[in-house]
Write the structure tokens for this entry.
Amino acid sequence: MSEKTKKIFLALTVIVPFLMYSVYYYAGIFKNAPYKFTEFKSFVFQFGNGDSLINKYNSTTGDYQYVNNHDSLVKMKLYLNKSELLYLHRKAADLGFWDFPSQELSNDTSRINGVKPPRYLMEFNYLHKNKKVIFDANYIGPQKLVDANQQMIKEIQSVLGEAESRLKK
């Protein structure tokens, strides 16, 4: 066998089947990804002290209410644009939100300075799946998980703050 024939034989028997299998395998994984932005329906964010989740945002209706620094309840219509929703979707994927436990609650019911610690509800709704996470600020769990939750909350609040400032202009 010539050197060229050996190379062709190697390519046809080893390399080509490996490449075909790899394409088949990874195409199935990406096709069956559970949370795709193309199937995104809505996003819900709520938070407040203890069980009182008075601060709320719903991307479907645009309803946004929060308690400001003067203890007044502010209500408004605030719609996030597609790029902001895509940013939150990607940030959730980067932080591993889809793998977070649904309930990250603390057993510690003590109050800090007479106020219960904040509780957050984050929910992403898609055509075929939903992911809802309830997180207590004083949750005692793996530090990476707590940090990822706090980062997700900061990102959400940042996007809502930017959208609100854009609305006021």
Notes: The chain has two domains: 1-32, 37-168. The CA atoms of residues 18 and 88 lie 36 Å apart. The mean pLDDT is 86. The longest helix spans residues 3-31.
